[in-house]
């Protein structure tokens, strides 16, 4: 979700100026809320008081009056002093880290760290004076202890013993630098980037699925590819209409069961003849869609799959399989049961969840009212669906890594979740209410952007020891070789927009990037996975250096890699990067070369200047790149479309970038745009199946023998080996 690839969903309005009070500035600063920022033209901009007020209110603070604001600031400053230990300590491996400990002034205190394996070590107190503070009538002092620099990676526990008792908090030791997976330590690797739902075989149920992913991985490995980057596979609504955008899931932790291949569920083999015939009839109902180049119908596919899966679920499991299911549930709870309960409630009451009765308004309410018990069978079904997703993801990753040529499947993590989804219902105030996430105006989106997603609350996330974030990442990485983090700069700061305000009326809110990036790296290290940060668009200069220092790859897109006014030479690309010619927010390269993106935006009324002027500028920008490719002797003057696409990829392979991505749409000559930023109903985003240059469906069955795909794969593979 690069800043410059998205457009506003709302019309910008004039923001009335108001002088910021000193108390608001002080409180905002204490909470990481920007009161000024430099806009895309480098101008210092003061954030409106109304925005600051709305953002602080979303953080649970009362700023209704100057007195309330001062009291809120006092409480924010006292928060750490009210705790013996911080809510969580996140440190880097091999580095000393100081821990503040608060006790009544003069009281003795000892601190130890208990390691995951059961061993423990004492912490040394540092000779550092901090003036004591009166907290609720008690003079409270701060002692400073130091974590040893030889602690192993992991989620440990700090324990502080005082005369009043024992306090504890998680202590997370994270990699200083994330190790590359072994398969990437020996050299560069290329892989396919694809939208899984669009890649169908003759055995699909109208939508590309996890069995197709396993097959695609085998085909790709046979062509020399080492990995497959897929769209976020996160769950959407279990009731129609199912959200088409994979970047607006109902939860980021669990998987959309739409991607299940019903026949690959083990228990299908033991169905009665009648039930097996029913499953086959349901499949035949939607399989004709696999050959249809029209829009993908998720609702029809899910209706058929859900009915079939209910038949399989009702058949039951052997004791061994039941034990495996229970182990999965135990490992994923309580989050799994919370998500499954939301799904069952959505089936009962429909959506939006804002219309649900009070007894279903929260997990606690559903439990107290007896709804959870009443819906136990449906909750069990939705837990079982996630278990099946987990099993089929494991199978797909095993297939992808069997050749030993690369990390296998690389998943994609969306920026946030649907504002009316399962995470909003189950995570409570860990997500901020009354604000959404987006981006400020810039040269490409002069109205700014609103992505309609609620952000994490940085204060609550820390109080929860980042466990919701950890559990999300850990679940995704369990059967993955990598993770691409969309809009990775959101782990540093996010643009918060007050509800119903213009995107221009937002401000930046900072997060503890040391904690978030560290935990992300720890979970990736344990999974043996590579991390890729989508760091396109407006990025503070130091952020890319920081990510590289932590071993996290950045992103480089051919059309956007510039050094001032000139395109970068490929040798100037970053080594720690995933480089690609195109991305899912642009047309396939064949369509881009034909200026399909200009024609489409013109038809949809998205252009802000005459189409002739837009075409001329786009042609000039393309020619800057194509001229460099010709200068390298990679492209003839009279080259056709296919030769041009291959030349651009050969040119990209001249870069030192560790990963080179090839969009599957480029491999087959597809021309249609998968997602047109700035549209919702105006264009069928995220619904286009994989097609060839003639507009006809390209099935996975035919991909291995597709001449165009084989030629491009050979071109990239040879270029990386030269």
Automatic annotation (TrEMBL):
Record flagged with keyword Transferase: yes
EC code(s) of this entry: 2.4.1.25
GO biological process: carbohydrate metabolic process
UniProt xrefs under Pfam families: Glyco_hydro_77, MalQ_N
Substrates-to-products reaction catalysed: Transfers a segment of a (1->4)-alpha-D-glucan to a new position in an acceptor, which may be glucose or a (1->4)-alpha-D-glucan
GO molecular function: 4-alpha-glucanotransferase activity
Sequence similarity: Belongs to the disproportionating enzyme family.
Protein name, as recorded: 4-alpha-glucanotransferase
Organism the protein comes from: Kineococcus rhizosphaerae
Lineage of the species this protein comes from: Bacteria, Bacillati, Actinomycetota, Actinomycetes, Kineosporiales
């Amino acid at each position: 979700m690069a800043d410059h690839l998205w457009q506003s969903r709302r019309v910008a309005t004039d923001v009335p100026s108001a002088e910021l009070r000193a108390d608001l500035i002080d409180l905002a600063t204490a909470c990481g809320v920007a009161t000024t920022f430099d806009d895309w033209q480098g101008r210092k901009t003061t954030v409106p008081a109304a925005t600051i007020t709305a953002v602080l209110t979303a953080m649970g603070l009362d700023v209704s009056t100057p007195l309330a604001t001062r009291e809120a600031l006092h409480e924010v400053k006292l928060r750490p002093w009210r705790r013996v230990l911080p809510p969580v300590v996140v440190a880097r491996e091999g580095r000393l880290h100081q821990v503040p400990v608060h006790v009544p002034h003069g009281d003795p205190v000892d601190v130890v760290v208990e390691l995951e394996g059961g061993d423990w070590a004492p912490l040394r107190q540092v000779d550092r004076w901090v003036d004591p503070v009166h907290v609720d009538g008690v003079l409270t002092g701060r002692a400073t202890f130091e974590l040893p620099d030889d602690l192993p990676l992991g989620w440990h526990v700090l324990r502080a013993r005082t005369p009043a008792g024992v306090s504890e908090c998680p202590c997370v030791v994270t990699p200083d630098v994330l190790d590359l997976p072994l398969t990437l330590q020996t050299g560069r690797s290329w892989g396919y980037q694809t939208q899984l739902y669009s890649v169908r075989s003759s055995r699909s149920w109208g939508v590309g699925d996890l069995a197709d992913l396993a097959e695609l991985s085998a085909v790709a490995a046979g062509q020399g590819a080492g990995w497959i980057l897929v769209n976020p596979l996160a769950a959407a609504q279990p009731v129609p209409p199912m959200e088409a955008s994979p970047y607006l899931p109902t939860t980021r932790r669990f998987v959309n069961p739409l991607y299940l291949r019903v026949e690959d569920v083990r228990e299908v083999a033991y169905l009665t003849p009648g039930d097996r015939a029913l499953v086959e009839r349901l499949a035949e109902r939607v399989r004709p869609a696999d050959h249809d180049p029209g829009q993908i119908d998720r609702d029809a596919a899910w209706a058929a799959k859900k009915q079939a899966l209910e038949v399989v679920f009702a058949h039951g499991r052997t004791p061994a399989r039941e034990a495996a299911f229970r182990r999965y549930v135990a490992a994923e709870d309580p989050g799994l049961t919370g998500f499954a309960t939301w799904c069952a409630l959505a089936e009962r009451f429909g959506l939006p969840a804002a219309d649900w009765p009070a007894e279903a308004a929260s997990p606690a309410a559903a439990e107290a009212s007896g709804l959870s018990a009443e819906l136990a069978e449906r909750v069990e079904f939705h837990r079982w669906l996630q278990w099946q997703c987990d099993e089929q993801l494991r199978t797909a990753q095993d297939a992808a890594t069997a050749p030993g040529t690369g990390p296998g499947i690389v998943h994609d993590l969306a920026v946030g979740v649907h504002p009316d989804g399962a995470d909003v219902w189950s995570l409570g105030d860990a997500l901020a209410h009354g604000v959404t996430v987006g981006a400020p105006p810039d040269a490409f989106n002069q109205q700014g952007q609103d992505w309609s997603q609620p952000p994490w609350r940085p204060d609550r996330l820390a109080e929860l020891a980042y466990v919701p974030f950890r559990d999300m990442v850990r679940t995704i990485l369990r059967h993955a070789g990598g993770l691409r983090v969309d809009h990775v700069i959101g782990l540093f700061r996010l643009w918060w927009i007050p509800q119903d305000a213009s995107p221009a009326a937002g401000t930046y809110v900072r997060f503890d990037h040391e904690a978030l990036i560290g935990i992300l790296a720890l979970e990736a290290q344990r999974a043996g996975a590579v991390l890729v940060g989508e760091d396109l668009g407006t990025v503070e200069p130091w952020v890319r250096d920081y990510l590289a220092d932590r071993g996290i790859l950045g992103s480089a897109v051919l059309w956007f890699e510039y050094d001032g006014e000139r395109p970068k030479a490929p040798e100037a690309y970053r080594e720690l990067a995933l480089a690609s010619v195109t991305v899912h927010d642009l047309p396939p390269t064949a369509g881009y070369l034909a200026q399909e993106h200009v024609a489409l935006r013109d038809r949809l009324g998205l252009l802000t200047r005459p189409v002739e002027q837009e075409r001329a500028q786009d042609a000039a920008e393309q020619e800057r790149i194509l001229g460099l490719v010709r200068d390298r002797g990679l492209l003839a003057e009279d080259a056709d479309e296919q030769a041009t696409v291959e030349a651009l990829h050969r040119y990209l392979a001249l870069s030192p970038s560790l990963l080179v991505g090839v969009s599957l749409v480029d491999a087959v000559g597809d021309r249609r745009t998968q997602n047109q930023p700035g549209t919702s109903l105006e264009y069928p985003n995220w619904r286009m199946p994989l097609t060839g240059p003639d507009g006809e469906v390209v099935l996975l069955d035919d991909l291995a023998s597709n001449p165009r795909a084989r030629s491009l794969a050979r071109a990239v593979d040879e270029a990386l080996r030269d």
